[in-house]
Please model this.
Amino acid sequence: MQPAIYEQHMEVIYHKLMQYLHFKFNRHSPVKFSQSFVLLMVLLGSAYQAAQPAHPEMTESDDACPASSPRIRLSDGRYLAYKERGVPKNESNYKIIIIHGFGSSKETNFLAPQELIDELRIYFLSFDRAGYGESDPNPKRSVKSEALDIQEVADRLELGSKFYVIGISMGSYPTWSCLKNIPHRLAGVALVVPVINYSWPSLPDYLTKDDYRKKLLQFVLWISNHAPGLLYWWLTQIWFPSSSSIESSTEFFNNRDIDILKKTSGFPMLSQEKVRQRGVFECLRRDFIVGFGDWDFDPMELSNPFPQNESSVHIWQGYEDKVVPYQLQRYVSGKLPWIRYHEVPDGGHLIIHYPGLCEAILRALLLGEENPLYGVS
Model:
């Protein structure tokens, strides 16, 4: 099919889909459908517009650049890039692996005070998950493979028999996978604004049936699986909202989030220079499909990895988060009473960037100190 005819064909399909979805969703949604769709794109699509992705038929290595960061070779031959922070590994009391979110990288900021890092002797390791930044893609990516990558990275870098894991936003699904597949390797876990997979069997219908996020996720998941060319075409059109318009929208972020975005250079959940080095479209599409597709376990059926209270698992959530509703996080933590739930009263989805929050996360995770500001009455 000639390019011009293909473009016209895609545009007709797009407009018919939008008409149908507007009718289907807009009657029950708290915001307009077009706004709702873009809200979902905060998780899925904003990286595409900013990072100028490769055509979906390209392989991930077609736009690869020489790696500038240290990398380790995994047993299947893939390379993962990593970054170390904090005190030297062999001088540390605590070793923590930071799992980045969607469209991000190992450069994700975890704003812990240097005084606390030195006082507690904390070593941080972050790495580009498969296909991100300077890491090779994993064509067999699965929920389980994410945990196995974390375990192998820890072994290759000699972190010891146990380590801590902090998963941020979309980085929560590899973290849940660690709780399922390698609980014996965990010294403690924190999930920060973890995304919710609406296909988890234990989520009750009364909590999700009117949630427009669920309908949108199901739609984009179907498109991602069955019509990736259409998704790619739509996301690369000129009418796709710019990252700056997303960053200033109260439909997506609360006031504190917007204040954070004003003080940062670009969308902080995206490391554009790193992400564009690989097949951005395919990497993000596969990550989305795995994170929001069917899993081989239900997190709400997991057992306590620390039955003797030798350590703990934490969820940190913003009460005003417009990407992940606090009601679902409260339900999940209520089904798993061994999880310690913390809620930031005026927090949105970007609480990881709020002053003092990273320190509170570390003190709760490593020392068991609870900050009364983040309790739920």
Observations:
- The first helix runs from residue 3 to 25.
- The two ends are 61 Å apart (CA to CA).
- The mean pLDDT is 81.
